[in-house]
Amino acid sequence: MFYRASLQAAAALASLTVLAGCGLLSDSSSETDQQITVGTTSSPSTLDPAAAWDGSWELMRNVFQTLVSFPTGTTSPEPDAADSCTFTDETSMAYRCTLRKNLKFSNGEKIDAEAVKHSIDRIRTIKVKGGPLGMLGSLDRVETKGDDEVIFHLNKSDATFPFILATPAMSLVPPSEYPADKLRSDGKVTGSGPYLLESYKAKKLAELKKNPGYKGFADRKNDGVSIRYFDDSASMVAALKAKEIDATYRGLTAEEVVSLEDNKSDNNGLQIVETVGADIRFLVFNPRDPAAGKPAVRQAIAQLVNRDALVAKVYQGTAEPLYSMVPKGIAGHATSFFDTFGDPSEVKARSILTKAGITEPVKMTFWFTTDRYGSSTAPEFAELKRQLEESGLFEITLKSAPWTVFQEGFTKGQYPVFGRGWFPDFPDPDNFIAPFVGKESVTGTPYLNTEITDELLPSSRQESDRGAVSKQFEQAQQILVEDVRLLPLWQGKLYVAAGEDIGGGERALDPQTVMQMWELYRKTSW
Fold first, then answer.
1. Among positive and negative, which fits the CA dihedral 346, 347, 349, 350?
2. Distance (Å, whole) CA 26 – CA 524
3. Which of 137, 285, 330, 486 is deepest in the core (most CB within 10 A)?
4. pLDDT tens digits, residue range 430-447?
5. Are strands 224-229 and 205-210 parallel, antiparallel or unpaired?
6. Cα separation of 139 and 153, whole Å?
7. Rounded to whole angstroms, how far apart are CA atoms 426 and 432?
């Protein structure tokens, strides 16, 4: 999603190494030992789910419940506040959920069908700009039957709807404390999740304590979690080394990852572990631009870009080359751009341009944002400029702007070529294709391709078995290669640093890369 909080280039959470012979503390252990402190550079922009389509999800996953969610080790939504959920028809246009019995919010209010309807309907009523309303485009209406049955009627087939319900934006809230027509404004949270938000200081600290009334799948391995929000990663890493925090998620730069990996003996036994991430970076070409609008120009750029050199020089191996919009780790991932263009080649690029009658160096302007995707963005675009100009086929001017200015510029179609990032709402290939095509592409540049929008996506959304839709997405990605309207560059790896006495993190990351804090614990020995 483009509205998620600012991402450092190699930032993230990942699994924490579990060392052999280490167990959980017993119930007799002190409360101090069972309290975990986690640091991050991504603070919530809101405490109300109806406004959340960003890094606020990190906190919300731990204090709210959703009808369905991602229990540890799963990649498909499973019941959480619901006892069961299923499509009632073969066309995936009606989704019915039956609630667990005797569920209550932390204020004692009953979680019933009306509370569920209220939670979803207020998103559509309030319509927060940049909020999660855009995720509910396929929802027609919410129907309740009795106290414990909710039916979501869709206006078109959408087998991804359960994934949407699993996002923290669809968290359940009590009607008495969350107005139907406006956001909650008292700075408090009332949910039914694994933890209670005991106290909160914006951009400083969130104190989570076990919710004694919680009924759900989470097996809480600690008594509570303190989340400290840092302004920059340097101060966060310093706090980790000084043992002021136990672990980090979201915020490590490439340089910090490399430093921690290379100097383990000097870092008080800190762990640094990586896994594959799902955040991607790519170039967007504006078809209205005289140069970027020419297929041969886009194809020549695709033929020249050296992703291996890019990730090695700029990201020092903390990212990996990406050859399709669907990243590794997501069903339907392919290597379509490599299969078509192969290794970077000046000879092939020159031939592409020559056949199109282009014999002079192509002058173009590339835009990037200065404050959205981390400090490595400027060096990344400098490297792209170097690669393209080294061929003698292009003359590239680089321009940049803060996010607010940058966003306004690309939505008005002012930029010929610009860099964007995407972090998924849910782990399905649909979420890496659908947002970028059609009249309302989230890139701000309409991308009309009826084969994708009118045939492949609707066909895939009728299939509730998401493992059976690879063919549609492979075909869609091949179309993207032929058009080169979007050029994938790299996908991030995910990292976490933690003290050697912290375990459980190998289970703490859900498929939305949101940390499930309840999995973290302090080891008795290591």
1. positive
2. 9
3. 285
4. 999 999 999 888 888 889
5. antiparallel
6. 6
7. 9
